[in-house]
Structures are given as structure tokens and as C-alpha cells.
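Data availability (excerpt). The following record was deposited with the supplementary files.
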Amino acid sequence: MPAATTDVRFPYDGSVIGQAPVGTVADARAALDAAVAVRPAAAAVASRTRRDILLRTRDALAARRGELEQLLVLETGKPLIDCRIEVDRSLVTLEASAEEVSRLHGETVPLDLLPSGDGLIGFWTRRPIGVVIGITGFNYPLLLAAHKAGPAIAAGCPIVIKPAPQTPLATLWLVHELREAAVACGAPAALAQLVTGGVDVGSTLVTDPRIGAVSFTGSAAVGHRIARDAAPRKVLLELGSNAALVVAADADLDAAASAILRGAFYASGQACISVQRVLVEDAVADALIDRLAAGLPDVAVGDPREEGTRVSALIDTASQERVAAWVDEAVAAGATRIGDVPAMLVDVPDGVLAWDEEIFGPVVCVRRVPDLDAALDAVNASRYGLHASVFTCSLASTFRAIDRLEVGGVVINEVPGFRSDTMPYGGVKDSGAGREGPRFAVEELTVTRMAVIRPA
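Predicted structure:
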């Protein structure tokens, strides 16, 4: 256990809500040594045991879900409703990961398609990729860690998790329960480890040549650096976005406005697929903007512990100052601001950060476009491509959007923030590489091993 500790603070009022260990480079190396040493044992853990470890962990967390929800509110500052959803989704992710254990299998290969293969038997199996490094963001610390640890353990890989420095406590709880479950099932505790700390700790973890893969959720800039530093090891990157929502002229405007007000501000806007850019056809733009302006005051802002709160403090003062500066820049460039917190920016031009980059705060930008094709072009003009959504009553427009949008997921008549934890999730372009969702992550964290046999 590291000797140093640091305060964990409630973002809403700055009060200290707990202490967390501060890891060092030496701790990271020790965790790596332990993970490498246990790798053969982890790969040999029986399928039923890997499944039981994950189900035991799910049950242990579910038994104390109320306490876990309150802890998430305190360390993230997210509204209670969002923390409840996070716990729900984390439990589903662990259960789905457990179910994937029984689906790890291989196939036979017809080697005799060429004469050289006559008499040969060929088949492939999936084997664990090795030690996995999981690095998570501050906004959904429990869920993101579950998406790293669940598939890794299902695949037979030891995992070392590094949580965000601001939000280590829920992840510590998860890893503790995983270790307890492993021991109870007769598996090594070192199957799951956690190291806190800063950039030096992260760099030590991702550059070690003994690891098999890095699974990272966070900013594009950090993800790109990790990809360079970790090469040639496999890297799964869930990075940023500035998710777009398109409103076609034939859309249900009430439904679209409701979705925007819900999808732009959940988790106080600190979600990579929250609605940031709205592209609306000219014919209905004024009507949509009027609906949004009328609904903004109803988005409850306040103490995240209160049942009705929908927007609260951002994770830290630096984030608050950055968001405010980006809004000011957009207004100076010609955008019209409606509301304070949350805020809507209308007619936002290209070339300002609030439109081009990921604002990660309770701000939504609206732009008028002449038609659906112009809207799709504007969505694709971004360097990001995680999720986008389109509100339309036209089946033809639906399939045009699905065909043309350069994103990892297209959502029709729902917010781009919709995510089922069992579906493939990930982006294109600067939004990342690889896919999460237990089935898809398990595939990412295993490698095929081909067997070719000439019977004697």
C-alpha cells in the first residue's frame, strides 16, 4: 500500500469525502510484476470459475448499491439520477461479461482447399492476450472500470486498472470485490489490481513490454500519446467526441427538443456522447429553438444529492473555467447565447472550440442548415466520430444517415447518448479505435491460435 494519500473532494462544495492512496512508479512496477507472474495461472482459470468471479462481484456490488450510488455522487459530483444509472449499467456489464465466458470458442478450418493441405487437420482457438492495462476517466469511474475488468477476466487476462486521480474510490471498491471473489473461487487475487497516481504511473504501465493490451477511456490527446507509447502492443481507445443530433424538417419537434434537453445535460454534460452539436433544417429551426429556449429553465441545477437535480458542478474549477472561456469565445465569434447554466449557443460558426472540440459541460450548440444533406456533411466535418443521431419520420432519411454518417453508432429518434452496454461501442477518426461491449471487448482481448495437425 502506498504511504502517501490524497484528499478526494466533493466537486459541488469542495469538502473532503475520503482519502485515497497515491501510487508511485515503484507501485506500478510491482503491480506489473505481480500481473506478469500470475498470467499463466489467470489463463488456466476454468471457464466456470471466471464466470463465477464476475457474478459474485456483481452480487456483492448489488447488495450495497445504495451506498455505491451515494459514493459516486460524492466523488464525481454527478446528479444522483445519473449515478443510479451508472450502477445499473455496471451490474449489467459484469453479468454480460460473465455470460461471454461460455461463448469463447474456435472453429475448424478446411486446410485441403489446396493440395498441400491434404490430410491435415486445422482449427483455431482464442487465447488470452496477456496482461491488460485499464485506464479510466473521471466521469463514469465504476462503469468504465467494469468495461475494462469484466471482459479482461472473462478472457482470462490479469488486469491492472488506473483510475482517474479525481475519482478513485468507486473503482477501488470494484477491484476489492473482484479480488475477494477471485480468492473465494480459488483463483489468485492478483487477477485484478489497481494503481493510483499521475502521468508517471500511467506511462510506466503502458510502456512495459510485458503487457498484452491497453484499454483507455479519456481525451483524444492522451489517447494518441498512449497509442504511440504502447506500440506495438494492442491499444483500445475510447476517446472524445462532439456528438451531433440532426433535426430533419419532418421530425417530431417536441420529441426532438425533449431529447436535446435530456441528452445535452445528463451527467452535467460530462459525457462523450452527450448532445453538443444540433443541426436543424431551416424550415423548422425557429420552432425548435423556441422549444429549447422555453425548456432550458426547467433543467434543474443544484446539489447533485437532491432527487430532482439534473445539472450540478463540473469535476473541478479548471473545467468550469475552460467551459466558460469556450462559451465566451463562441459569443465573441457571433453566436447568440441563451441561458446561463445550462446554456444554449445559437448559430455557432466553425473555428471555435465550442463547436469544433469536446466541451464536456452543460452547453449545447445549435446551427441552422438548408437541408438534410448539409446537416450530414456538417456532422462528418468533425475530426470526431463516436455517435450521432437523427430525428426524422422518413425511412429513406434514416437509411441515408446510417449510410453516410462517419461515426461508430447512428441513433434514430433518440439521443446519441443512448448506449446499451452489450452493443459494440466505439468511434472512428479521432474518437478512437477498437470496440467495447463485453462480447466485442473479449474478442479484442484474445488472440487466435491456429493449430495445424498431420496425424501420424
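Summary of structural features: Residues 268 and 311 are 5 Å apart (CA to CA).
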